[in-house]
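From the thread on structure requests for the teaching lab: each student submitted one protein with a one-line request. Submission from student K.M.:

"Model Alpha-2-macroglobulin-like from Notechis scutatus, tokens only."
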Amino acid sequence: MAMKLDGLPGPGRPLVDQPFISPVIGSMPIPGGSFSVGAALPGLPTPQVEAAPKRTPRRLFPETWMWDLVIINGSQGNSHSQLHSSSRKSDVSEEPKEIALPVTIPDTITEWKAGAFCLSADAGFGLAQPTFLKAFQPFFIELTFPYSVVRGEAFPLKATVFSYLTYCIRVRISLTPSADFEASPMEEEEDSYCICANGRKTVSWMMTPKILGEVNLTASAEAVTSNQLCGNEVVEVPTIGNKDIVIKSLLVEPEGIEKEMVFNSLLCASGEPVSKSFPLTLPENVVEGSARASFCVLGDILGGAIKNLNQLLQIPYGCGEQNMALFAPNIYILNYLNETGQLTQEIKSKAVGYLEAGYQRQLNYKHRDGSYSAFGESYSKEGNTWLTAFVLKSFARARSIIFVEDKQVNDAQNSLTQQQENDGCFRSTGSLFNNNLKVQEEGDPDDTDN
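Reply posted by the TA:
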């Protein structure tokens, strides 16, 4: 029997000073061998944990938490989820068994929603009711800054301290200096700030990063003793969790405009070592520290083009030209995957569906004489020669994959025949908005195919 566990958060922070080991929340009755995931259920007290004497910086803030497969009945699970299991095959009359899965709560103050489902050859599919775990501390600091900045760009870094305590405290807020950035307070700094019950305080610095890449920002908030009053109240210091430290990363990108150069070479080895040199000369105005290089060696001449080729499949849409620009590549991709033995039934069904949709859509742009234009006969007096030829070739090639009515192919062919001069050339009629279709036609060695 196997079960899946997953957790989804909201934004937030940690529960206690040190990583908190807690069982996953939930229960799941399974016919013929019930078990439950041990934990705090709704309506029961949330587990209380003694705070550690030393505050651990918070730096782990995932969007989701846990997606683990746990094997019970004594089988070994993955290294992250298997702890112990007392469950085994049993009669329905036996008491439900439990499996405890210790996990470390991320550094996020939020309410986590946990769910679980299981599959069993004997009992089938089981689904647990979702349950919740609140990770919370009454006093914490939060940093606010952009996802990324350009090196040398100045921006405001804000640190906000939240207090959900029932009394007033005085808090010392600080930003750890670093050689990676320059920071100066945007207002006159104080030794400590007064925050009363359910209050907050924001301190800002004007920051300028000096290096590229990931820059760690470390801020702390500490409740301190003071003889100063907060309003008319005497300040107190929490006995547990009187300091919070948070570490977050800022992405610093290079200034200027990115320029990329690619060098390709075909090496034909015949049993002997072969080497090839490439000039890696940087331009004179290169941004310092922004240069990087990578290389890739493939044993297939088409390796770079065909990697994840099925991801290039797209459903055709848009006007007559856009539709065909997306319709035709699906044919080539499907044929290549089929010839190289990479075509799966799932990919084939997807591609066939796209081709059928594109074929039906293209007929909307057909003229009565069999030609095609970008917007159809209601918007154009005559079809375009290049687009009609492209439709003819693509429909002819698609006939081996989907049903294409012979009349549609013959009509397009007859329309082109009417535009042919005595010397064999074709008159160019109508408007072509996307010249890439024309370039593709001119550069295709198979443009005489039917």
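TA comment: The CA atoms of residues 2 and 71 lie 5 Å apart. The first strand starts at residue 2 and ends at 8.
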